[in-house]
Amino acid sequence: ISQTDFLFKFLVIGSAGTGKSCLLHQFIETKFKQDSNHTIGVEFGSRVVNVGGKTVKLQIWDTAGQERFRSVTRSYYRGAAGALLVYDITSRETYNALTNWLTDARTLASPNIVIILCGNKKDLDADREVTFLEASRFAQENELMFLETSALTGENVEEAFLKTARTILNKMESGKQYTGDGVVRVMRCVAFTPNITFCIVAKKFNFGFI
Ligand SMILES: Nc1nc2c(ncn2[C@@H]2O[C@H](COP(=O)(O)OP(=O)(O)OP(=O)(O)O)[C@@H](O)[C@H]2O)c(=O)[nH]1
User: Fold this and answer.
1) pTM for this entry
2) Ligand 1 near 25 CB (within 6 A)
3) Which residues have CB under 8 Å from 150's CB, separation 6+?
4) Closest ligand 1 atom, CA of 18?
5) Is the CB of residue 42 below 6 angstroms from any atom belonging to ligand 1?
6) Alpha-carbon torsion, ordered 196, 155, 162, 72, to 10 deg
7) Residue scoring higher pLDDT (21 or 176)
8) What is the mean pLDDT of residues 176-193?
9) Which of 10, 77, 95, 203 is 20 to 30 A (C-alpha) from 116?
10) Residue 155 CB–ligand 1 contact under 6 Å
11) Confidence tier at 90 by pLDDT (50, 70, 90)
12) How remote is the CA of residue 139 from the centroid of ligand 1, in Å?
C-alpha cells in the first residue's frame, strides 16, 4: 500500500524530433531511449516523486509533434496542471514554432498551466542554432520557466519535471488564484503492482476557492 498525496497531469509538447519521448523515457527509466520513433498520437508514463515532503504522482502525456496528429493530441490537453514545452537547440525551426504550441497549451489546457520551456539536445552544443540568452528572454516574456536539457546525458531532465511540480504545489499553497486544474488530491491509494495504482477515493479540489 502506497500513499500518494497528489496526482498531477503533465503534458510534453513541442515539434516533432525535439526529443519529447526521450525526455519522458529518461525521466521514467533514467536512461536514454535508443532508436526512438515518431510518436503516434499520445503515449503515457507516470512516476511518483517527492516534492517538498509531499508524494506526488506525475501522470505524463507525451504527445506527437507531427502536424498530422495535431487534432488527436489537442484532445489530451484538457485539465493539465503542468507542461514541458520542448524545442531543439540545434533547430531554429522548432524554436520558431514555440508560440503556436504555447497558444494551444494556454487555450486548450488551462490559462493557469505551469509551463517550463526545455531547450533539449544541450549535448549538441557545437550544432546550436538558438542561444541560451535568446530563449531565456522568450521564456521571461511569456512567463515560462526555462532550462536547457539533454535526454541523452540526462542533464536537467529530472529538474525540469520537479521544478514544474514544485511550482504547482507552491501556487496551490499560496492560493494565488490557482484553480487547481489537473490536480487531484488522492485520499487513499492502493497499489497492486508498482505500475498499477487504484485510487479508491480521489477528490478534485478547486484550489481557487480555498
Ligand atoms: N543528441 C541528442 N539527441 C537526442 C536527444 N533527445 C532526443 N534525441 C534524438 O532526437 C530524435 C527524436 O527524439 P524523440 O524523442 O523521438 O522526439 P519526439 O519529440 O518525441 O518526436 P515526435 O514523437 O515525432 O514528436 C531521436 O533520434 C533521438 O535519439 C538529446 O538530448 N540529445
Assistant:
1) 0.87
2) no
3) 120, 121, 122, 123, 156, 157
4) 19
5) no
6) -60
7) 21
8) 54
9) 203
10) no
11) very high
12) 22
CA-proximal residue: ligand 1, atom 32 (nearest):
121
What cell does 40 get?
A: 503516434
- pLDDT band, residue 50 (cuts 50/70/90): very high
- Nearest atom in ligand 1 to the alpha carbon of residue 150 is 31
Over range 73-93, report the average pLDDT: 93
> Ligand 1: distance of its center to the CA of 33 in Å?
9
Tell me how far apart the alpha carbons of residues 10 and 47 are, in angstroms, rounded to a whole number.
11
Q: Is the minimum distance from the CB of 151 to ligand 1 under 6 angstroms?
A: yes
Ligand 1: residue whose CA is nearest its atom 12:
17
